[in-house]
Amino acid sequence: MTDTTAPPEPPAQPPRSGVLEGVAPAVVPAPSPAPDGGGAAREQPQPSGLGRVLARAAALTAALTALGSLLGLLRDQTIAHLFGAGPATDAFLVAWTVPELSSTVLIEDAMALLLIPAFSLALARRRGAGQGPDPVRTLLAATLPRLLLALGAAMVLLELGAPVLVGILAPGLKDPALAVDCTRLTAATVLTFGLTGYFSAALRAHRRFVPPAAIYVVYNVGIIATLLLLHARWGVRAAAAGVAVGGLLMVLVQLPSFLRRLPPRGPRPRRSVRAAARAAGDAGAAPLGIALLAPVIIFSLCRQAQVLIERFLAASLPAGAISHLNYAQKVAQLPMVLSLMIVTVTFPVVAQALADGEPDKARRRVERDLTLAGIVVLLGTAFVIACAPQIVQLLFQRGAFDAADTAATASVMRVYALGLLGQSMVGALVRPFFSAARPTWYPAAAMGAGLLITITAGAVTVGYWGIYGIAGANAAGITATAVLLLRGLGAQVIAIRARTVAAGLGRLVVAAAAATTAGWATARLLPGPLLSTTVCCLVVPAIFTAAAAAVRVPEVPHLLATVKRKLPHVR
Known about the structure:
By secondary structure, this protein is mostly helical. The protein has helices spanning about 50-85, 85-110, 110-130, 135-160, 160-170, 175-185, 190-205, 210-215, 215-235, 235-260, 275-280, 290-315, 320-330, 335-355, 360-385, 390-395, 405-415, 420-435, 440-465, 465-490, 500-525, 530-550, 555-570. The protein is about 75% helix and about 0% strand. Helix 2 packs antiparallel against helix 12 (about 290-315). The radius of gyration is 23 Å and the shape is globular.
């Protein structure tokens, strides 16, 4: 579950040290590793006004993303406390598939991958446009009315077809009628998430990052508030109603900033939407035809299908299996969500660089982003694996969520965490594929191959290992997809040094293994979940940093130097 207010303005000269410099190192040109991955050949960092703007945006995005994630945990804690991990929760989680799929397609992947390059190109064309139609307004006229019509029709179809959908998603569900009621409530997110994704893409292309980063804050506030108000009367249906309320709040939190970004109105010519689309092409605003839409949508659907497969396979297992998988995913995915904040902020910059004909700039940005995302996600993975039982006990073990639920959730969370690097790399790698606003089927094919591995491995192992087999199949499939995308990106889109990036990630895996071992031993030695988790918060990062420096991960010396420069300011 991923991703703000006053937009940051670029200063003339960024400082060489300060609180922002180390928050988003991905946006400052960095030392480039040698082809052998050892970091021998390096470029000197060149601070820029753009770097400071993006650093500030990344800091604000990080803060709001973290707050949204914490509220998401509070949301899950509230559901676990009120309903435990039983048939009612399973029914809600089947309905939860609708907002999950909508979020992936309409906010996090497809909408952003399509519209950020389109708006970036329109903005580039606007700078060189004469007296013709404004490319940004033309793009809006060509896309927004169609989107609203399609989303409204899809929402109505979901409302009418909810019984059929529940039967397909979870044929062995214990309470399908409850799942149908919840699905009809969550169907509203198809419309609200679509508008949310459209506004987010437009704002990020304009380099306005704070309102898009705030969407999950207000979303989770809406769910929690509705739950607390209505759970006694509506039961788990209150959670589904909260999803609908939260989706509406996501639209409203971005609407003022989106309206301020609208280009000024010129003369209003009388023309159809089709004519507006043709004008968008003439103005260089990259109309979103089926050739561009289809591969992005297929990729997004294949990616989200992993969750559908998990729930389909788990529906035949004892009650609570779907819930244990869900709680494990929600916690384990936090490092992945935080790692992707880097590429969320820099994706418009990559798209703009390609639109301006600067592929080398895009390459340097992508290579550094991949390494930094790997650092964040693998550090989080080490902590999650080492302290899984303690984390779950602290977060969920109260009310109807008992010790048996904690043990099952923690065990499957450790298996699921093995795929976090793959999850993060897929999210980071797919963006450059679509940043040039050109049709490409390679990401969809790679995701399809990974999905096939997930289906096959899950079907074979679920009978032997239950939910652990399902989580392991997910990790194997997404990791295979990440490997395929890494190889394909350097060969087809941006000439990144795939072997160098892979070597750096391999060294980070070694550092993460060392940190995991130290954290696991620490957690077993100390009594009480709070004490052991707190100490691991210190031990795991320290061992990870020391091990990463020992195996010569290229970015670590630069990050340590940044921290040292900041320490005098902290005092």
